[in-house]
Design a protein that fits this description.
This protein has 449 residues and is an alpha+beta fold. It has helices spanning 2-14, 48-54, 120-150, 157-183, 188-195, 268-277, 418-429, and strands spanning 43-45, 58-60, 64-78, 84-88, 93-98, 105-106, 111-117, 202-206, 229-234, 241-242, 247-252, 256-263, 282-284, 304-305, 316-323, 326-331, 334-339, 346-363, 368-370, 373-380, 383-389, 391-394, 398-402, 412-414, 437-439, 445-447. Helix content is 24%, strand content 33%.
Length: 449
């Protein structure tokens, strides 16, 4: 009896479904999102709060022209022979006073250093000048006495002629010593004092006179106040002995600078054409938007294209003159200078090549790339539909879009945030059409009315 009962139990257990069995073919499945049909653009539903978070800017589009350029890396440098000026020691001396410090502004002809002379040649020149000057005075007095006696015929006229010749030679000697002392840095007043026997033992070294800048190199507050040098580096210390020609300090005069571009040989024909036609060069200085300078820069043009190629870097140097601007400020009774452009700053030269007409010009942040496709986003209320476009050319800050009908004039396009909008489109497309839209019979998609 137990064997038929066991068979019956096994049959009943076989009819109970297992919890690990596959679902039945008739079980209901969640509906898959319907793909968008042809001609239906992908759209992003962006709330007003999300637009503020993204900082979206929307503007109507109109055809314009786009200047195609080539970009050349460059660096701002001092203009040789104009910008930096070294102050040297005129004599062998010991530094006894330093009247300036790094960062100070220096007026033209301002005292900078006091040097105690230890030059035997300079002392000897002063001594010879004094002796020649005194001898001239003695010879003049002697001539006056002989001139009074010569009228009576007692003194021959030849002796007076000899004294005149002697005075001429002494005058030449005095002028030579005077010129030598002036060349060594002594002022005219100090030379006159040395001729009277008041020998000079100290020399005051002054800053150079301010040479006028070319008209293209002026800027900033030139009309408001006289320019001042800025002490860039101090080369000597107190008690240091210096020789003639030793650099005591370096003064900065950054009113006239040069942008030195570094181009490859392939760009050389375009650069030569821009230099020949005096085309205006755009420069990306990378200035912060919060910085404000009152004066606009004049048009910048290529002044020189090097006729040689650097054997190490294989680049061609291009020089563009740059007129600097400055602002002054007062702190603790001293005036400081703030330069707009500084040597060593890296910039980019935008050399014009070709003008594209009848195109749409957008910022780079308004276009997103997905593989070989490029898209922009058109606003429709809270919706932004993705539109494929043809990119003709682009620079570091702008993109030229072909006016081929994909974008119509007057359309409101997002000027930034294209990458974020593209991610929103993909996320919402994975869940079907965004909420608040409907499809018309012609296949177009619109927001709910």
């Amino acid at each position: 009896m137990w064997r038929p009962l066991s068979a019956l139990c096994i049959a009943l257990l076989a009819q109970i479904p297992s919890c690990t069995s596959e679902p039945s073919a008739n079980a209901p499945t969640p509906p898959a999102p319907a793909p968008a049909g042809p001609g239906v653009p992908l759209m992003a539903n962006v709330s007003p709060q999300a637009r503020k978070n993204l900082g979206l800017v929307v503007k109507p589009m109109a055809p314009a022209s786009f200047l195609r350029t080539i970009e050349i890396p460059a660096v701002i440098t001092d203009r040789p022979g104009v910008s930096d000026r070294g102050v040297i020691s005129p004599v062998t001396a010991v530094v006894t006073q330093v009247l300036i410090h790094p960062g100070d502004t220096v007026e033209p002809d301002q005292p900078l250093f006091v040097l105690r002379m230890v030059s035997e040649r300079l002392h000897a020149s002063q001594l010879e000048l004094f002796k020649a000057t005194r001898e001239m005075e003695i010879q003049r007095q002697h001539r006056q006495r002989l001139a009074g006696i010569a009228e009576s015929g007692v003194v021959p006229q030849s002796r007076i002629i000899d004294i005149d010749n002697r005075l001429q030679l002494l005058d030449v000697t005095v002028q030579a010593y005077r010129q030598e002392l002036v060349a060594r840095g002594l002022s005219k007043e100090r030379v006159d004092a040395a001729a009277r026997g008041e020998f000079v033992t100290e020399v005051t070294v002054r800053s150079p006179s301010s040479a006028p800048m070319p008209s293209r190199a002026t800027g900033g507050e030139t009309a408001a106040q006289p320019f001042r040098f800025e002490l860039q580096s101090l080369k000597v210390e107190l008690g240091q002995q210096v020789e003639p020609g030793t650099v005591l300090c370096e003064l900065a005069d950054h009113r006239a600078l040069v942008i030195e571009g570094h181009a490859f040989k392939a760009d050389l024909p375009l650069l030569q054409e821009a230099a020949r036609t005096a085309a205006a060069i755009e420069v990306d200085f990378g200035e912060h938007s919060a910085v404000r300078w009152p004066d606009a820069l004049p048009p910048l043009r290529i002044e020189y294209v090097a006729n040689t190629i650097d054997p190490e870097t294989r680049v061609v140097n291009v020089l563009v003159p740059l007129a600097n601007q400055w602002q002054s400020y007062m702190q603790q009774g001293k005036m400081g200078i703030l330069w707009r452009f500084r040597p060593g700053d890296r910039v980019r030269l935008q050399v014009p090549v070709e003008e594209l007409a009848n195109v749409f010009v957008l910022p780079r942040e308004a276009v997103v790339r997905d593989g070989s496709d490029a898209y922009v986003f058109r606003q429709n209320g809270d919706l932004f539909d993705r539109r494929p476009v043809h990119v003709l050319d682009e620079s570091r800050s702008q993109v030229a879009i072909a006016n081929d009908g994909s974008i119509k004039p007057g359309s409101y396009l997002a000027q930034n945030g294209a990458a974020s909008l593209n991610r929103i489109v993909k996320a919402q497309a994975a869940q079907g059409l965004p909420a608040g839209v409907h499809v018309h019979a012609d296949g177009t998609v619109h927001g709910a009315h």
